[in-house]
Every structure is written in structure tokens, then in C-alpha cells.
Write a structure and sequence with these properties.
homodimer, 6 helices, 148 residues, Arc Repressor Mutant, subunit A, 7% strand, mainly alpha, DNA-binding
Chain lengths: 148, 148
DNA sequence: ACTATATAGTTTGATATAGAACTAATGGAG
DNA sequence: CTCCATTAGTTCTATATCAAACTATATAGT
């Protein structure tokens, strides 16, 4: 492959990634109840999976968004009482994010809303291929992350 | 794989896609000159590769964004004189988008700005893997597109 | 030909996000 | 102990995007 072909391939690849992201995000946004956005759901999901009591910073690191964006998103979740934000016990600059009961039940409810879509994708997609791609995607993510 | 594992895999997959898209987009945005955004560059690139004289609709189809978004993006390009928008000769509702000389030279300039980044990615990434993934990504995109 | 439906593009309002400038608290170097 | 660099979070501004309502033109069915 010459340089031009490499560039073209790279461009195509990221183009495809971008379109998939756009289509999947807007599809999920339309399915989520009550005007919630995927980014909100993703945070609830993160706290369920990894346990709550995380700092805003650690969450924004996990999703690779800016601190300002995280303030905004956590504010939205907090206003809906899906999370509770408390001062960090040993660091006056920091905070800790906890799930509320409403947050947990909302998460279950959101999962229910999303599952039909996810299940349909599972039916139509070759999951083995997806599973195979995952580590490669993670590698590419790591490279991008390193070069930030 | 049981249903839960399938769902988890699907979630992970789209999560990774989302993060890659976010990282690559913000990296590219920072590199583009003069406050231009990847979405602007992508349209210039589209018109260079496939030829200009396209309708706004066909461009928004290609990038899977809404018509309103395309109006906004084309407006930005037009205000910078990178494109020229003319009435469609045979359809009074429609328009045609052409590249200006400034648009073409800006595109070359943008390519120059982006190439170092792209080339570095090429160096650090296994391009064969990327090439292998591309058709699978296109298949997933097609499924999402069909279910819109 | 007339009318109803469909299509192309615009406008408006809401929201997600980045980036930069800011505040407050921490922690290390001298 | 004091001062400076670092870190956590917030605020502000700009912009990308979607969704829905809207306008104008085109097309199909009767």
C-alpha cells in the first residue's frame, strides 16, 4: 500500500466510524424515555457497572469528555434526582457521585427500552465479527488517546 | 453466548465506537485551520472526490445528518466562500452546491494539515486490521441505516 | 385541470460538547 | 512556613446537531 492508499483507507475508516456513531446515538436517543440522552444513560450505566462513589473527573476520563461537559451532564442527572453529588471526604476540591434509588430504577427502565433495539442488532449482526473487532478498536482508541 | 453477554458486547462495541469518534473528531478539529470543523472539511472532501454540483439533500444523505444540519453547515461554507450554492436548473425546490477556487485550495491546505496526523496513525496502527474491519463496519452501518 | 400528497430546503428551539478563562483547594520545594 | 505549580470543578461562549414546524415546489390520482 502506498501513502495515498493508506490515507484513503484511514479516512474511510474514520468516516464509517463517525456515521455509525451518529446513527446509533440518534437511534438510542429517540428510544430513551423522558428526554434523556445516551450520554446520561451511559453515566448511569458506568456507575452501575463499576460502582458509584466516583469523582466527576474519573467519569469524564472514562468517557473522554471535557470536565466542562461532565459538569453539564452531571447537572442534568442531578436535577432529575438520578444521582446525588456529595463533597469528597478527603479532598476539598473534589466530589463524589452516587446513584439514587430513582437513578437505579431509571437505569433498569432505560435498559428495558433499549433492549429491543439491541436484540434486533444482535439478530442482524454477526456478533462474532463484533467480538473480533472489539480489541482492535480498543487498540485504536488507545493510540488516539496517547496522542491527545 | 447468552442474551446478556450479547447485550454487553453490543454495548461495549458502540461505546468504543463512540469514544473513537469523539477522540478523532476533536483531534481533527484542533488541526484544521481557521476554525473549520471536520464536518466542513468532510463536505469539501466529498465534493472533490465525487464531483460538485450535488444537491444539499444528497450530501446530507451521504453523511447521514438532518437537512437542517446541512443547511447550517453549507451556510458556514458559503459564508467563507468555499462553496457556491445555485438554484437547481430543473427543480425549483432544490439547489446545487459547487466548489469555489478558494474551496479547492482550502481543501488542499486542509489535507496538508491533516496528513501528519493521519500518517502517524498509519504508522502506529495495523492497517491490515483496519482494512479488514472496514467491510464489517459498513455492514453495521447498513443495518443501522435500514432501521432508522 | 384540481386536489392531495410528497419532497427540498429553511427556521426555530433545545441540548451536547469543546475550549478557554476562572476559582478554590492541594501539595511540594525551598 | 510560605509560595508556586498542579489539580478539581465551574462558568461562559461558540458551534454542531437533532427534531419539529414551516414554506415552496413538484407530482400523482382522480
Amino acid at each position: 500500500m502506498n501513502t495515498d492508499e493508506k490515507r484513503k483507507l484511514t479516512f474511510q475508516f474514520f468516516n464509517e466510524i463517525g456515521i455509525i456513531q451518529q446513527l446509533s446515538t440518534t437511534a438510542l436517543n429517540r428510544m430513551l424515555p423522558d428526554g434523556l440522552h445516551v450520554s446520561h444513560f451511559a453515566i448511569l450505566n458506568h456507575l452501575i457497572r463499576l460502582g458509584d462513589g466516583k469523582t466527576p473527573q474519573s467519569i469524564s476520563d472514562a468517557f473522554q469528555v471535557t470536565k466542562g461537559t461532565m459538569t453539564h451532564t452531571l447537572g442534568a442527572l442531578s436535577k432529575r434526582n438520578l444521582i446525588a453529588i456529595q463533597p469528597h471526604p478527603s479532598d476539598g476540591r473534589s466530589k463524589l457521585v452516587f446513584l439514587t434509588d430513582a437513578g437505579r430504577s431509571f437505569h433498569s427502565q432505560a435498559i428495558e427500552s433499549l433492549n429491543p433495539f439491541v436484540d434486533q442488532l444482535c439478530r442482524e449482526t454477526d456478533l462474532d465479527v463484533m467480538e473480533e473487532m472489539l480489541p482492535h478498536l480498543q487498540a485504536i482508541r488507545a493510540i488516539l488517546d496517547k496522542n491527545r
